[in-house]
Amino acid sequence: NLEVGIVGLPNVGKSTLFNAITKAGAEAANYPFCTIEPNVGVVDVPDERLQKLVDMYKSKRVIPAAVRFVDIAGLVKGAAQGEGLGNKFLAHIRQVDAIAQVVRCFADENITHVEGALDPLRDIEIINTELCLADLETVEKRMERTQKLVKSGDKKAQAELAILKRIQDALGNAEPARRVELEADEAAMIADLNLLTLKPVLFVANVSEEEVTCPEDNRYVQAVLQYAQQERAGVVAVSAKVEAEIAELPEADAKEFLAELGLNESGLDKLIRASHKLLGLMTFLTAGEQEVRAWTICRGTKAPQAGGKIHSDIERGFIRAEIVSFTDLMAAGSQAAAREKGLVRLEGKDYVMQDGDVTYFRFNV
Ligand code: GDP
């Protein structure tokens, strides 16, 4: 499942948002094998197709895809030099797939801003600098090791050192590593460093309750949108306060509340969708009497690797996948009817999975 780290300066609304995430949280029962730490919130990926499949197959249970949000608190100016919670927390970010940075776009005199006046771009730069400094340390540590290997005549180390130098230069100028253009084989050489500034970024513009229906009118949000465009980052505008209120409500009331505000989805759902889009993820489905389940894969994933998400045996012993698109299945009315109409396809190992493929894998054990 997708894992997103939430960062941001103090007092921008991180905890408010994170509390909303944990309250709206997925049923822990669905995830019996993962221990959930206090700074982790797991939420279901909303998907209306699942209930329709449950109705069709009379399934006993449903397991939606999930996103893990990790609250990475304690990022302040100087964190990379060991101030505040220091460098320790940065280790937490290394494992996440993407970073969501909450930036304050709401004005409220009663809530002090650590850096004085409201200025989301300055806030973004502060966090960016900290992340660059942390990466710089990682890169320089690796360079020492690589240099030794170069001295001993290692050819591969020489190539690696060249890449590390390019990244070091960028980071030294407070430029994130993602701006350094790397070939696939070059990127592979440094992948194990898990550089923070290589991870995709999503800015979460936290606006006031009043602005939640038209956040584009907020000039700070405008500034963030412009900045994000040149960084190829995503942006979602939410009001953490509104999210916190929604999280307190039963589902039906929450829908009504959103409708009253003129919104068709919660900020949390927006955030989940944006994260999936940013990372080029999609969903395939499995359905049966036992359960209906959504699985997250990268665009371009082939059938055996998709099966591997379910069990490594499926990938190893892959024979074929029986696939019907969700739309075809619904139009046909049942799996049997879809089969009669020839809508259930037999796909081989080179088939590229499509979003909404309802899939049954055949494999040798
Ligand atoms: P953190 O330090 O980034 O975790 O920030 P908090 O979530 O603790 O929020 C700091 C303060 O800002 C709290 O008093 C929140 O109630 C307030 N706050 C958060 N989001 C909003 C918002 O959308 N509008 C307003 N007016 N206040 C907010």
Automatic annotation (TrEMBL):
Residues 2-280 form the OBG-type G domain. The keyword ATP-binding applies. GO terms for molecular function: ATP binding; ATP hydrolysis activity; GTP binding; metal ion binding; ribosomal large subunit binding. The keyword Metal-binding applies. ATP binds at residues 11-16. GO terms for cellular component: cytoplasm. PROSITE patterns: G_OBG. Signal peptide: none annotated. Keywords: ATP-binding, Magnesium, Metal-binding, Nucleotide-binding. ATPase that binds to both the 70S ribosome and the 50S ribosomal subunit in a nucleotide-independent manner. Belongs to the TRAFAC class OBG-HflX-like GTPase superfamily. OBG GTPase family. YchF/OLA1 subfamily. HAMAP family: YchF_OLA1_ATPase. This is Ribosome-binding ATPase YchF. It comes from Propionispora hippei DSM 15287. The gene is ychF.
